[in-house]
Specification:
Number of domains: 1
CATH superfamily: Peptidase S8/S53 domain
Strand content: 5-15%
Strand order of the largest sheet: 3-6-2-7-9-10-11
Distance between the termini: 8 Å
Largest sheet: 7 strands, parallel
Shape: globular
Number of strands: 15
Helix content: 25-40%
Number of helices: 12
Amino acid sequence: MLRRAARLLAAVVAACASVALAGITLLAPAVPAHADSIRDGEYWLSEYGIQKAWDVSKGAGVTVAVIDSGVNGGIPDLKGAVAGGTDASGAGQADGQGPIGSEPVHGTLVATVLAGRGHNPDGSPAASGSVGSDGIVGVAPQAQLLTVSTWLGSPNPAGRTDADQIPAAVRWAVDHGAKVINMSLGSSSPDWPSSWDDAFLYAEQKDVVVVAAAGNRAAGNIQVGAPATIPGVLTVAGLDRQEHASVDASSQGVSIGVSAPAEQLLGGLPDGNYAQWEGSSGATPIVAGVAALIRAKWPQMSAKQVINRIVSTAKDAGAPGHDPIYGYGVLDAGAALTANVPETTANPLGSIADWIRVHRRSAPATPGPSPTGPAKAPAEDTPLPEASVPVPAASADANPWPAVVVLGFGGLIAVILGGGTWHVLRLRRAADAGADGGGETGDGAEGEPSAEKS
């Protein structure tokens, strides 16, 4: 219990120092890891029906945008996967591939889980259209990625805030052919700046699937925060290895659509090494990858049909039907690609166009230039209902600290990378076996507090 308290205290300190950032905490020094053990560790590929889904689709022809801290497309597992990019922060590389912000490794971790292609045993990239035998293979290994780098979680040296960066990133992704947008980021508030309205409306009108992270209790996010509260967005909650709602690596709220694995994940780092990580940030690209598989199989299928197919084939969990812990249930990628799903006339998760008509009566309901400056949603918004926090079976380690964090920081609306990530463990490729990695830096947020894993 003392270790858990220390970890939560570290999260509070990080929040004070960097506006509620769910910082990456190194759990242990780097350890040697053979590449085949990395592939073997991707348990979600078999346990969540993804390998079954590959019999139908691997995502060819679909473009997915990763709005994050930058994606290094030069590492072996992503060679040929990144088709383009940009920087929305004003502080990064023009092509969006330079890791930036308070969690610079975050975007590459997300991208490898989504569309990694692995590599050959000699370290060379996999041939075009194929998957290498070693390294990370993503859920949609034949999809193309767009990277949009953003500076989130700490002051942006270029001065652009999340109120400016997020709508610019979404619009750029839509205009450059993204059919799915992955947003493994979040905030501590269910409200969002009015400057985001038009961008998300634009994505909805252009038939783009937007997938976002629910957030993490370990970082103080008891309730889902924006953009995962925006109507029409497919919000992803996190699960532990037993397919139960994760106590630390998830959140709760009525906007949750589906649940996916968020613990004991593996991903690639910008330097070509690997990391073990946890958080709904990792669950999100798994679901976004399934959306890409569906769009590749049925190119004419609408975004609302894609989302409906994912949530309606999910395995019910928790309270019967939709609930604020699991959403519609546990992801079943195989069923999402093979089941007979009736068509729907509406997105089961709502519509931002309808929300704007009701809640932004004085604002136009057509996409136009985004206003500058953050603004909270109107007071008439219905608050998210409270829900019981899941407690791990046979555990006496639960405590009320996360609620204290929310009471202290619930009003913060700065966007945080790590809606998903709250800790990372460095792993090394076989080529680095025997090297001492315990003192390395550059793959985590500089100055972030360290906490021991309980």
